[in-house]
Amino acid sequence: SGFSNLSAYINNYRLEYAYRLLRDLDNKQTIDSIAKASGFSTVRTFQRLFKERYGMTPAEFRESYPGLRTNE
User: Fold this and answer.
1) 1-57 residue pLDDT tens
2) Cα(72)–Cα(59) distance, rounded to whole angstroms?
3) Which residue among 6, 15, 27, 58 has the highest number of C-beta atoms inside a 10 angstrom radius?
4) What is the crossing angle of helices 2-23 and 43-54, to 10°?
5) Would you state the CATH architecture of domain 2-64?
């Protein structure tokens, strides 16, 4: 249906935005605040979709990205 395509498009856009926020070395936002800033209503949904798309959770991504290790 058109709705699921639109929903997938919007979530894709949100995930790409969140990816850029997580990759930004100067960004000290928590995973929760990145989820909200990216337009996700729940952190759980954000984490699930991020893992489906990138193969790891946002926290795992942040840990794996050079220079981004934080104590979150």
Assistant:
1) 566 799 999 999 999 999 999 998 788 899 999 999 999 999 999 999 999 999 999
2) 8
3) 58
4) 90
5) Orthogonal Bundle (1.10)
